[in-house]
Design a protein that fits this description.
heterodimer; A: mainly alpha; B: mainly alpha; Rna Polymerase Sigma Factor, Chain: A; Arc Repressor Mutant, subunit A
Chain lengths: ~170, ~160
């Protein structure tokens, strides 16, 4: 048997923590091993000395149990437990009511658009000739200037940048 | 009469001397040991449902007593030694070995000393001590082994010293 395991078993035996079967086996081992038996005796002596060294002073008999205080504490505990239970039930009820109201509440309708019809901004009239056609730009320019010269053959488009609107120039 | 109160009365008859000794063993609490004993049972009835989940009523009550004692120690002004060995009976003849053992026990770490006391003086099992202290059984075992090893070493060195 290993020394560490023997030490563990000897201490468990000295402290009364071994089952009767294991204790019997250990006793048989100790009967055949004087060294182990000597260590067991040393251990028992150490524990006996420890008990003696820390012996408690002789204690007087305790007072009788204060049953009235015990009952008061029990009543307080019960009423506190009942309050907690009521609070839990109330919280569950409030939660249920809240969820029920949310589930059955009337949904807001999207009637605003119908009540105030949106007026779309009219798009500028586009000439059938196309957005970049000379005719449309001439018409727009004439409208801006307040003249009515719609002879588009007199004009030409001048592109200065692909990102800017072309300028209208009169042909020489 | 209420079942819980009846059960606690029965436990009080069986365990109050041991619990009283547990409080009196701590010098700082010795004066209020009776009050602490009553407090222990008041707390026990507040958490009475846990009694049946406990390994044993003894472990349950010692666990509560430990917390009651710790709370009482915390409320004391921090002067002097809070936990110490009780004085030996005056009439007992002083043995040098007992005195050196007392010193060796006092030199143990608090956790080991507390575990040793619960085992040696209150005869709690490893499982009960584990529940009282809120630690695994293996830790109880190792604390006891270390404590006893240190005591043996202290005694051996004391004997070898001329």
């Amino acid at each position: 048997m290993k020394s560490e395991m023997l030490e563990t078993l000897l201490l468990d035996r000295a402290l009364g923590e071994l089952s009767p079967e294991v204790a019997a086996l250990l006793d048989a081992h100790l009967a055949q091993n004087p060294d182990a038996a000597r260590r067991a005796a040393e251990l028992a002596g150490t524990l006996q000395l420890a008990r003696a060294a820390t012996a408690a002073p002789v204690a007087s008999a305790p007072h009788p149990l204060d049953v009235g205080r015990l009952r008061r504490a029990q009543r307080t505990q019960r009423s506190a437990a009942r309050r907690v239970e009521i609070f839990r039930l109330a919280a569950c009820l409030a939660l249920g009511l809240g969820l029920g109201w949310l589930a059955h509440a009337p949904q807001p309708r999207l009637e605003i658009a119908a009540a105030t019809p949106h007026r779309a901004t009219p798009l500028p009239a586009v000439s059938p000739a196309g957005f970049w056609s000379v005719a449309r730009i001439v018409a727009e320019e004439q409208a801006r200037r307040g003249t009515n010269d719609r002879n588009e053959t007199r004009y030409a488009l001048r592109w200065e940048s692909p990102t800017k609107q072309p300028r209208l120039e009169e042909k020489p | 009469m209420d079942d819980a109160v009846l059960q606690l009365e029965s436990l009080y008859r069986d365990l109050s001397p041991a619990l009283l000794a547990y409080f009196r063993r701590q010098r700082a609490l010795a004066g209020s040991a009776e009050d602490l004993l009553q407090d222990t049972f008041v707390r026990a009835i507040r958490g009475f449902g846990r009694l049946h989940a406990s390994i044993s009523p003894r472990a349950y009550l010692f666990g509560i007593a430990r917390h009651v004692g710790l709370d009482a120690l915390r409320s004391l002004p921090p002067t002097g030694e809070l936990v110490s060995e009780p004085a030996a009976p005056a009439a007992a003849p002083e043995d040098a070995r007992i005195e050196s053992m007392r010193q060796a026990i006092a030199a143990l770490p608090d956790a080991q000393r507390e575990t040793l006391h619960l085992k040696l003086h209150h005869e709690l099992s490893y499982e009960e001590i584990a529940e009282v202290l809120g630690i695994p059984v293996g830790t109880v075992r190792s604390r006891l082994h270390h404590a006893v090893s240190q005591l043996r070493a202290a005694l051996t060195s004391g004997n070898s010293t001329p």
